């Protein structure tokens, strides 16, 4: 398969590896019919306060991608994000939920938001952050998280809380 060059190609390979690993796991479960159930967690782009970041230059993962693209002309990923604390919460809840099926999947994503909303929030709450993003932005994506909400009882942190924790941490490190 031909992959796009640069960042787009890296992202496509990452997504493909996740999909192929999941498909292989589901196939293995069907073929082997083990005595245990499988619960898989599928978060969208995970943002939030990092427990491993030690300096402004340590920013990594989607937090790093988000921070670096604030200086770009446009966001580098869709506006489907979930708070890292919600992902941790879902893992804890999924470990104790009784499953009827052999394989249960949970899609995790915070409230629907658009980059227009995020830009407005950043400009009002963090005027010291220079944004070079130029509209128009992609339309906000829809993500069906109803299974996680119903089965795990998930309640998502607000978009503002997700971006506030991500940006505040980085700004605090930059002040040090």
- Assess the beta-strand content as a share of residues: 5-15%
Q: Tally the structural domains.
A: 1
Q: Tell the overall outline.
A: globular
Q: What's the architecture in CATH terms?
A: 3-Layer(aba) Sandwich
The strand order across the widest sheet is: 1-4
Describe the structure in brief.
With 176 residues, this protein is mostly helical. It contains 6 helices and 4 strands.
Notes on the protein architecture:
This protein has 176 residues and is mainly alpha-helical. It has a single domain, classed as 3-Layer(aba) Sandwich (Rossmann fold), CATH 3.40.50.720. Helices cover 46% and strands 10% of the residues. The longest helix is centred in the first third of the chain and has 27 residues. 19% of the residues are buried.
Protein traits:
single chain; 176 residues; mainly alpha; Rossmann fold; two-stranded parallel ribbon; two-stranded parallel sheet; 6 helices; 4 strands
SSE order and pairing:
Layout: H1 6-32, E1 38-43, E2 45-47, H2 61-69, E3 81-83, H3 84-94, E4 103-108, H4 115-125, H5 146-151, H6 159-175
């Amino acid at each position: 398969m031909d992959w796009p060059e640069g960042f787009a190609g890296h992202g496509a390979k990452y997504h493909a590896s996740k999909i192929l690993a999941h498909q292989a796991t589901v196939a293995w479960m069907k073929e082997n019919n083990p005595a245990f159930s499988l619960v898989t967690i599928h978060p969208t782009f995970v943002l939030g306060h990092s427990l491993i970041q030690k300096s402004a230059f340590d920013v990594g993962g989607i937090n790093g991608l988000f921070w670096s693209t604030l200086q770009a002309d446009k966001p580098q990923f869709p506006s489907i994000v979930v708070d890292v604390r919600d992902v941790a919460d879902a893992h804890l809840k999924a470990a104790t939920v009784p499953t009827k099926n052999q394989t249960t999947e949970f899609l995790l994503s915070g409230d629907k938001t658009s980059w227009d909303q995020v830009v407005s929030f950043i400009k009002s709450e963090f005027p010291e952050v220079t944004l070079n993003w130029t509209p128009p932005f992609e339309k906000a994506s829809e993500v069906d998280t109803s299974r996680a909400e119903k089965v795990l009882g998930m309640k998502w942190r607000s978009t503002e809380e997700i971006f506030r924790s991500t940006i505040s941490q980085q700004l605090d490190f930059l002040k040090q």
